């Protein structure tokens, strides 16, 4: 259908072509047929991996396949108990891996779907509200001010309709719509005044349209198809770990071959040594590492969702920890996106207005708005009447007599935010349009347009007709001949006009957007045209601003502590951007500059790259400027997060290291191009996501440290025993059991550990930093050596004390397990010891260690398991030796770190 040039056809022909009655809409049977034919009205997303393939994928590892083959051989040789036990361990490992990956997969699937808005349609002659996803071609869609258009439509009715299409076309001003056919089939999209497009929004008027395209057939869908990038990809960390895995496989293979060959040369049974080698290889290779990394990222994703940061691409989680620059839009992200009247100028007085957002609670300092003869009262009445916005609670229109409705619900507005702001200012004085209109009735309106820069309404009152006007101060003031004062109406001299404009300029310097209000009595026979705007009486100026979010001010402070540069990018004027940036703390004295879009046009890419680190605010920029800004920062080696909402922002969002889309105001196309979506459009959420990203990377380092040091301990235990001619301290089945008990639940529990204190007080890590940087490799080597030597020490002592081979192996087996279970608590921090971190500050880890302990005690004390795992019960002195050797390093390291950090004055003792 999209190949049809709908804009050149008369609307009746469009309705006929789509087989729909304009006054009745489609019938339900036809809706169901079309829905089945064209599908849901959504942008396509990639489906995840089927659970069956996820599970089977757990067995594709080479060493697991070797072990499965060995298990089959074992069964054929009659070792049924060993075969069943090894197979059970492999299946349990596979289930653990499956759960981890399934959780990560479902996390990403759920995060790709965002709640669709509703649509009003005409079906079978009745107006209905339906999910926008159920709209089909041929539906008659009804839209009003504030509504978002759910699909591509050809307008069949347009009453004072203006549509904000910047998200799709880049056109900064609302486009006036009509129903007349156009003559050129190749008319640019931005000039198709009889068309409406998915994702754009009505800012004025109302209308109806025939849906001509849905889903991926819409203009938004076409662009989505070009820029959509939802392919799953490995993070740089996962790629580095895969490379590490190859080396570990090679080294482990060589060590295991050495163990097997040495054992055979010493007369050990070939079958036994073969199984030992394979089991040791399985234990040495951290095959669970990719799954653990995946689940850590997925857990982090879930945490971020709770903080309103929706991660769409897993690489963003890792990259967040490296972010050095956050480029953010102003409106709604750094500010509240709720215009608020802060000052009113009337009768030569500056009147301050208190209150925040759309809540009609506040005070007026400098005048009494309730006095009828006070010009402020009149100014607020004009603000309420010359207005098409509506004050709401829970989405329900609220008049002055029903302010108690939904006391706990947030206030909101339907309509233009600027009109909403002055409507709220009037409500703060108890002046409500709904109440005023009981005594006077609107009979005409001259809507706002970009040429006239003003809006006028005409009301029938008991005293006769009256015109109320609001608009740009310079445009309104030139039409005024008089001024309303407390003494009555006086002539407006040129000197007085200059005085009013000086007041306007002063308000503008404080980043206030200013509107002038005026009135005029009319004769009954006077025509309702622009003549009613001549000879007006000036009443006042209303100055409003979109105030900064309190959370954004705090978040910017955190950014600076974390070594991250906050940058504001806005389409607003330079003065407004500069004032808000100072209030937010983005601009501080001489630090950081302000550059306008016009200056950017005159600046080459090379010059911009050289200056970029000295600029903190970009004002009056276009979407294409954002792409240049991102590239300039990246050229300087910065890791950039960039926010965007419109389709034209998608290139910059995609170019950024971390593309951030707005969840409330962003288009679906921008969300598809982004790495992360803000559920609340709040700058503080980006900073919170950076904090989570750093914490997730730290957690990944924690269990890499844990897994590799434990695996190193296992390999050293077997290798050194073989090297010095000792009997094998562990049997193959015991090696596999150690791998299951220690590498499973405890490692997973590390992935949900909380962030270190002061994580946002350190600079961002470098993107190319090795996972083993900052001394991690030495920590792994030292602790792995301790685990291996400690296990061998217990084994040798047991033999020396006359303990039989069964008991000695049980002691070595148990020492190896408990050494790793103690070590997992050390891995929770790279700077603090177990006594500072606290044992009970991660209850998941405590639970995991308890389960692993119970499992290990079971194989020692449960008779049937003793037979399978070749163990024997231990007595008191054996337990004392095991616990001292296994837990000694953790206790000593914990005390050493406590003393060191106390000496340096940075100890933080965790609660619990």
TrEMBL record:
Limits of the Cation-transporting P-type ATPase N-terminal domain: 5-79
Its membrane topology: Multi-pass membrane protein
Subcellular location: Cell membrane
Any one cellular-component term (Gene Ontology): plasma membrane
GO function terms (MF aspect): ATP binding; ATP hydrolysis activity; metal ion binding; P-type calcium transporter activity
EC number per UniProt: 7.2.2.10
Transmembrane segments: 52-77, 83-102, 247-267, 273-299, 780-800, 837-863, 875-896
Principal location: membrane
Keywords: ATP-binding, Calcium, Calcium transport, Cell membrane, Ion transport, Magnesium, Membrane, Metal-binding, Nucleotide-binding, Translocase, Transmembrane, Transmembrane helix, Transport
GO biological process: one example: export from cell
Catalysed reaction equations from the record: Ca(2+)(in) + ATP + H2O = Ca(2+)(out) + ADP + phosphate + H(+)
PANTHER family assigned: CALCIUM-TRANSPORTING ATPASE
NCBIfam families the record matches: ATPase-IIA1_Ca (TIGR01116), ATPase-IIA2_Ca (TIGR01522), ATPase_P-type (TIGR01494)
Protein family according to the UniProt entry: Belongs to the cation transport ATPase (P-type) (TC 3.A.3) family. Type IIA subfamily.
The protein's name in its UniProt record: P-type Ca(2+) transporter
Species whose genome carries this gene: Desulfosporosinus meridiei (strain ATCC BAA-275 / DSM 13257 / KCTC 12902 / NCIMB 13706 / S10)
